[in-house]
């Protein structure tokens, strides 16, 4: 038994991380691969049997992991970003959610022939999109800020609301079967209101206490992250004692309160939690899918498939259409949001627990609730996962898919490089906090961002731009290293570069630590003074398509500083003496070099 559990844990972890890497490498929706792995390891090959192996521990473990996921989602909800999608989010909660519920209930009853009580529960469950599926899709696709904020807020806010709605409906239909409908007014609604108020308070008050502890330096750094994770789990568990689903409200509000109180030290937590959530989501999707019995799959029928199609093509689009009438949303945004609504872990967890209670209450169609919800989850994850990117491109809701470069520090050399890239249609952004330094770049029509990149505003402003690589090029080598170290978790450590701080400072033992700076662009001798003096002497940046001979000659020609090799739609390769393998351009790549005045004239 213990050996089976060990094998299950190892296979789940290994398969989950492998699926995430394959999704990243080949730009595929990770949730689809995880879902497929769960089906293969569970109902397919019978390797994983999570609920049988873990017994009564399975559901509590799943619930606690979901608590961490929704807490991480709450940390992303800064009210300043609500301005991007505020009107739409309010309508999605107050209007679209009940319309979804009503239409979903009607569809389940008349198409899949579910009893009214079971149909009402199905309609409540499908109102939940959920951050566990939406956030990974947003991370892998560059959507415009407003539509991305719209989907993010909807998923995170409607997740606990939809779960509570499902719990209320379940309690109502099961109690009504035994005691009558009068209990809705006398018991269920008062319990729901009081539980929600308690959950909101349970999320806000601990966040306020944490803020005071952290600001007064009453908590050591080593305990901050463990404290916050523990509080999130405790709040979730205690709120669930008042009502099923209330824990999701408490954990989400706790995360939102921490972010909007601007509690110091949250950046470390966010980075660690993002890694944890990737691991947890991978494990959860595989385990919940693997736990499906073949009998559930066998009960899939044409009426259930018809119900799924109706949910995707009629219920959700109509709910979005009616709820967004009169808003500032464009028709493209309304079409996109009306289509993209993948369901995930919360829907699966609620459906699994609800089926048993419906059966105990005597509903004949209770055994169809899990197949119906599973079918919606499966189809939405696959169809929406693969259609999100092409649909967003077709509707013009994506940022540029070309790899983009941010250059920090406006000076003659960086402006020259940015202008060369801009002429060739390569997305580039010049960042500086001095308006006087940006004037020369503004006269040349270059994309600019006036901000201190180490500020919260600067970091948020950069996140809204389609930037994939960074070069820190200010005269201050220490500042360049600080920027690179700060942005490395966002871009990836191999994508942040800086101009050389000097040969002596690059010593691996006595020099500046590699973790405290970026990779050196070009050679160690290419410091700020050298590049600045070359521009003064008339050296210029030129771009040209690579030929067959450039594969061997790149970086080896005298009197030419080869800087970048750009593969359109794929990557930007920035030369660095610290690379273990040198950049090898392929024919057709765009090569960017700095050349002497006479060569620059010839190239022009």
TrEMBL record:
It holds the Pfam family Na_H_Exchanger. One of its GO terms (biological process) is proton transmembrane transport. It is a multi-pass membrane protein. The keyword Transmembrane helix applies. The chain crosses the membrane at residues 6-24, 31-50, 56-77, 89-112, 118-138, 150-173, 193-214, 226-243, 276-296, 302-323, 335-356, 368-388. One of its GO terms (molecular function) is antiporter activity. InterPro entries: Cation/H_exchanger_TM, Na+/solute_symporter_sf, NAD(P)-bd_dom_sf. It is found in: Cell membrane. One of its GO terms (cellular component) is plasma membrane. Residues 22-393 form the Cation/H+ exchanger transmembrane domain. The keyword Transport applies. Keywords: Antiport, Cell membrane, Ion transport, Membrane, Transmembrane, Transmembrane helix, Transport. This is Na+/H+ antiporter. It comes from Acidomonas methanolica NBRC 104435.
């Amino acid at each position: 038994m213990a050996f089976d559990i060990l094998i299950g844990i190892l296979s789940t972890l290994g398969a989950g991380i492998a699926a995430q890497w394959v999704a990243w490498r080949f730009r595929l929706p990770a949730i689809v691969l995880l879902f497929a792995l769960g089906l293969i390891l569970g109902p397919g090959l019978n390797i994983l049997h999570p609920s049988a192996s873990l017994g009564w521990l399975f559901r509590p473990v799943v619930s606690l992991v979901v608590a961490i996921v929704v807490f991480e989602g709450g940390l992303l909800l800064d009210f300043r970003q609500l301005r991007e999608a505020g009107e739409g989010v309010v309508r999605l909660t107050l209007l679209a959610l009940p319309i979804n519920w009503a239409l979903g209930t009607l569809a389940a009853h008349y198409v899949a022939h579910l009893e009214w009580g079971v149909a009402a529960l199905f309609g409540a469950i499908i109102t939940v999109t959920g951050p566990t599926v939406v956030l990974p899709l947003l991370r892998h696709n560059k959507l415009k800020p407003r539509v991305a904020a719209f989907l993010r807020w909807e998923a995170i806010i409607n997740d606990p609301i939809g779960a509570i709605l499902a719990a209320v409906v379940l309690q109502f239909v099961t109690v009504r079967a035994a005691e009558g409908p009068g209990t809705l007014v006398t018991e269920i609604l008062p319990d729901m209101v009081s539980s929600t108020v308690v959950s909101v308070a349970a999320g806000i008050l601990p966040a306020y206490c944490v803020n005071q502890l952290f600001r007064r330096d009453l908590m050591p750094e080593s305990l901050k992250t463990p404290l916050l994770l523990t509080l999130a789990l405790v709040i979730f568990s205690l709120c669930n004692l008042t009502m099923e689903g209330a824990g999701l409200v408490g954990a989400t509000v706790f995360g939102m309160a921490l972010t909007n109180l601007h509690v110091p030290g949250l950046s470390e937590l966010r980075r660690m939690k993002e890694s944890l959530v990737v691991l947890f989501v991978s494990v959860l999707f595989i385990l919940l899918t693997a736990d499906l019995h073949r009998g559930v799959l066998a009960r899939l029928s044409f009426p259930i498939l018809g119900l799924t199609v109706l949910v995707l093509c009629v219920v959700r689009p109509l709910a979005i259409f009616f709820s967004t009438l009169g808003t500032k949303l464009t028709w493209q945004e309304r079409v996109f949001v009306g289509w993209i609504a993948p369901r995930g872990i919360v829907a699966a967890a609620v459906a699994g627990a609800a089926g048993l209670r419906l059966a105990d209450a005597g509903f004949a169609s209770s055994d169809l609730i899990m197949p119906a919800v599973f079918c919606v989850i499966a189809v939405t994850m696959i169809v929406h996962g693969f259609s999100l990117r092409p649909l967003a491109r077709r509707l013009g809701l994506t940022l540029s898919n070309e790899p983009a470069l941010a250059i920090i520090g406006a000076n003659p050399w960086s402006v020259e490089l940015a202008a060369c890239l801009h002429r060739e249609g390569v997305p580039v952004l010049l960042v500086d906090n001095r308006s006087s330094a940006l004037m020369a770049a503004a006269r040349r029509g270059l994309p600019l961002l006036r901000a201190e990149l180490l500020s919260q505003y600067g970091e948020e402003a950069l996140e809204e731009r389609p930037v994939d690589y960074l070069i820190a090029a200010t005269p201050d080598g220490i500042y360049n290293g600080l920027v690179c170290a700060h942005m490395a978790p966002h871009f990836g450590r191999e994508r942040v570069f800086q101009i050389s701080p000097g040969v002596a400072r690059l010593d691996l033992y006595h020099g500046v630590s590699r973790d405290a700076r970026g990779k050196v662009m070009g050679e160690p001798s290419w410091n700020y003074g050298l590049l600045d003096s070359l521009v003064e002497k008339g050296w210029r940046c030129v771009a040209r398509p690579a030929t067959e001979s450039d594969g061997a000659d790149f970086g080896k020609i005298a009197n030419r500083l080869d800087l970048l090799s750009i593969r359109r739609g794929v990557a930007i390769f920035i030369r660095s003496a610290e690379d273990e393998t040198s950049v090898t351009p392929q024919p057709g790549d765009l090569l960017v070099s700095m050349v002497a005045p006479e060569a620059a004239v010839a190239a022009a």
